[in-house]
Amino acid sequence: MFKALLLDNANGFQASVQQIDESRLPAGDVTVAMAYSTLNYKDALALCNKGPVVRSWPMVAGIDGAGTVLESSHPAWKAGDAIVHNGWGVGETHWGCLAAKARLKGDWLVRRPPVFTARQAMAIGTAGYTAMLSVLALEDHGVQPGDGPVLVTGATGGVGSIAVALLTKLGYQVTAATGKVSEADYLKTLGATQIIDRAELASPGKPLQKERWAAVVDAVGSHTLVNGLAQTRYGGVVTACGLAQGLDLPGSVAPFILRGVTLVGIDSVMAPLALRHRAWDRLARDLDVALLERMIEEVPLEEAVAKAAQLMAGQIRGRVVVRIDA
Fold first, then answer.
1. Listing from the earlier edge strand, what are the strands of the sheet with 59-60?
2. What percent of the chain has pLDDT over 70?
3. Any residues with CB less than 8 A from the CB of 23 and at least 6 apart, and which?
4. What are the φ/ψ torsions at residue 57 (nearest 5 degrees)?
5. 69: closest CA among 19, 24, 108, 21?
6. Which of the 8 DSSP states describes residue 246?
7. Which of 24, 79, 122, 309 is the most buried (most CB within 10 A)?
8. 118 Cβ partners below 8 Å, 6+ apart?
9. Distance CA 36, CA 122 (A)
10. Are the C-beta atoms of residues 158 and 188 closer than 8 Å to each other?
11. 69 phi-psi bin (left φ>0, alpha ψ -120 to 50, beta other)
12. Which has the closest alpha carbon to 28: 105, 107, 108, 110?
């Protein structure tokens, strides 16, 4: 038996920590003892039943996990190996990592960089890995630290917090957009040189606006993303990885055809292993662990549902790490 956060809709939606028999674990070639998981926006949607995240019931939640291999029939993994898991439909169609044990596919796993503990790896989680994918996209499109300010939206969230820290470490000048004016000191601690109110970006704006940003890392979507595009300088780059404000894109082609702005979609769920390895290698090199610790709020598995509700209500700063006690 092992404990897990199980989601079920047989008699109305329920999310509860239960003891589950190991015979119920799904198919997979690697069995992992999970030490830590985390709460991403998608996890919160699932735990609060706020969106169609779960597509197979019942479902053990948790798209991210860090732990140690117990058993493996996959050639790349052996008992005792330290792993990180992000995405791949886990917690949606395949039982996830908010559990003491998970059975996964070896092709989904990344070796945990030795510089990170399991707890720190989950403080990064999909949010931090997505932030790194966004930074890599800026670099790959030629954005350099001296080119001008980079705007990070949703800056007190998981993606935003780590994006601010990464970009600052790499020498970029970072402007952080947030609705939490009280968190200005937190964002400056991470390296932001300017803080703006998210209200400046959240309403409909002109198709082309004053050129302000060399690049934008957006985790919000909707009008915020459109205004970010409209304010990006000629030849600039905007990455899109989130939908906190909405799925819609209520804008025009003006930034693309008149300023040559590039919009890059960032998908962390199905990203190929080579890109994942590149992102985690760079996180190990470029993320200040001391700053990472300032972002962390740790809770036991039994408090994950309540914490997810706070995340959905916009009451969480940084990263929530979930401790999985055996």
1. 14-20, 2-8, 59-60
2. 100
3. none
4. -120, 150
5. 108
6. B
7. 122
8. 35, 36, 66, 67, 82, 112
9. 6
10. no
11. beta
12. 105
